[in-house]
Amino acid sequence: MKLLAASLVALLTLGQPAPPIDASQDPAVGSPTSYRDAVFALLEADLNTLRDREPVLRPVSLEIEELPAGLWGYASRNLIGGWRIVVSEAALEHEVLARETLVHEYAHILATRAGRFDEHAHGAYWGVAYSRAYRAVFASWELAALPPLSKPEDK
């Protein structure tokens, strides 16, 4: 039921960048299950944003799986010729890690949109694709919430 609610939230925010989770607004977010559900809902909303702002020719699905330690996610082709992005179950414990993993993996798919596979998977084409995907998802974050940059002292 919670995943259904998360899916509904993702559909309602189609094309809109999802803001970070604010635990102070929802006391239920303190429990591991509800926090993970909230992160999953953000991932679905982020994927919808990516589909809208940086479309690819084939469908992209999102799956959560238990992965080996240190592997946060991967992208691969599915059986019907579309793409699937798998995010680690463990990544759901950390909102930013899960969202950046989704962006990272979507960038691999975007790099193939140009018909290019980088020799080392994280080359120039992927870098440009990552930049585009990152901006699509995180551009809405409030920059005013970041601490001001300090100027180096003149000597």
Helical proportion, percent range = 40-55%
Q: Over all CA atoms, what is the radius of gyration?
A: 17 Å
Number of domains: 1
Structural class: alpha+beta
Distance between the termini: 61 Å
- Overall, the morphology is globular
Please write the string of helix (H) and strand (E) elements: HHEEEHH
| Strand order in the largest sheet | 1-3-2
Alpha plus pi helix count: 4
| Average pLDDT number | 77
**Which stretches are low in confidence, meaning pLDDT under 50 for 5 or more residues running?**
1-15, 24-29
Strand content: 5-15%
Question: Can you characterise this structure?
Answer:
This protein has 155 residues and is α+β, with helices and mostly antiparallel strands. Helices cover 43% and strands 11% of the residues. The protein has one domain (2-140). The protein has a three-stranded mixed sheet, covered by helices on one side. Strand 2 (73-77) and strand 3 form a beta hairpin. Helix 3 packs across helix 4. The longest helix has 22 residues, at 32-53. The radius of gyration is 17 Å and the shape is globular. The termini are far apart. Residues 1-15 and 24-29 have low confidence and may be disordered.
